[in-house]
Specification:
This protein is α/β, with parallel strands linked by helices. It folds into two domains: about 210 residues, Rossmann fold, CATH 3.40.50.300; about 80 residues, Alpha-Beta Plaits, CATH 3.30.70.1650. It has eleven helices and 13 strands. A six-stranded mixed beta sheet has the order 5-6-7-3-8-9, with helices on both faces. Strand 6, helix 6 and strand 7 form a beta-alpha-beta unit. Helix 8 packs across helix 11. It is found in: Cell membrane. Keywords: Antibiotic resistance, ATP-binding, Nucleotide-binding, Transport. It is a peripheral membrane protein.
Length: about 300
């Protein structure tokens, strides 16, 4: 999937402002961003629900609006609004969706795997929020899509259902399915994604694997224990100029800076040269959530 220079406006508000991104085939790609960043509008345009006002979108090499009939059997979509008829029973809805495809998954087996068998005869409107989420996911994948769009797939799920969803998505990727995922759970994106695009103010501000994005933040923390009263001023003078060292309590030290193997070697060398025995050393790197907040801001808008 490829998006180039996409622009989408609502009156005087520019929701998407020249956004470009790629989704590699057979990957799980997460599109992250704060509320109002433009990610939902972008994904809905890729799904064919909106026409680009400027720029281009290609999904499986096709135009999602002009080639909708050809794309529909090849693409699965999980909507935040669910997409099921409110009066339909869960298994009826899933079997109906399966009947629309040439080679669907076994709907009963899929329902059982996602914990829907026990509520199969319950009308959609009476399902819990988590059950509705699981049914929406099942409806999106039952047709064996080549490309799968998931909007907040684990919102409202308990830990067991969330883990089952992660395992299913990993299996789909292993089978060659391309997954585009939007989520506010940074641990989910970090665990599942091969590629992450961070969107803010209608454009992509950072892209890369979770490891690349967290490494790009560079700053991290080293916590070490030693005897109380280590000369932290002298230690800082031996380290890169932007490194800070503080004794937070007796014999417990926190070092912050651009953590890399050279800095760790400099720290241990200085301790050895000054007869300081380190009892423990713990390196803490940025999480994806830390990096996301660095990129998009740490205050509410």
């Amino acid at each position: 999937m490829q998006v180039r220079d996409l622009v989408m406006r609502y009156g005087s508000t520019t929701a998407v402002d020249g956004l470009s991104l790629d989704v590699p085939e057979g990957s799980i790609t997460a599109v992250l961003g704060p509320n109002g960043a433009g990610k939902t509008t972008t994904v809905e345009t890729c799904e064919g629900f909106r026409a680009p006002q400027s720029g281009s979108v290609r999904v499986l090499g096709l135009d999602p609006r002009l080639d909708a009939v050809r794309l529909r059997p090849r693409v699965g979509v999980m909507l935040q609004s669910g997409g099921a008829w409110t009066g339909s029973r869960a298994t009826e809805m899933l079997r109906h969706m399966a009947s629309l495809h040439a080679h669907p998954l076994d709907p009963d087996a899929l329902a059982d795997r996602l914990g829907l068998a026990s509520c199969g005869r319950t009308p959609y409107r009476r399902l819990s929020g988590g059950q509705q989420q699981r049914l929406s996911l099942a409806m999106a994948v039952v047709g064996r899509p080549e490309l799968l769009f998931l909007d907040e797939p684990t919102a409202g799920l308990d830990p067991q259902a969330r883990r089952a969803t992660w395992e299913l998505l990993a299996e789909l990727r292993g089978a060659g399915v391309t997954v585009v995922l939007t989520t506010h759970f940074m641990d989910e994106a970090e665990q599942l994604s091969d590629l992450v695009h961070v969107v803010d103010a209608g454009t992509v501000i950072a892209s890369g694997s979770p490891a690349e994005l967290t490494a790009a933040g560079a700053r991290g923390t080293i916590r070490f224990a030693a005897r109380p009263g280590v000369d932290v001023v002298a230690l800082m003078e031996a380290l890169p100029h932007d490194t800070k060292v503080e004794e937070v309590e007796g014999g417990r030290y926190v070092l912050t800076g651009e953590i890399d193997p050279r800095l760790l070697a400099d720290l241990t060398r200085w301790c050895a040269d000054h007869d300081v025995l380190t009892e423990s050393v713990l390196v803490e790197r940025q999480s994806l959530e830390d990096r996301f907040l660095d990129l998009t801001g740490r205050t509410l808008r």
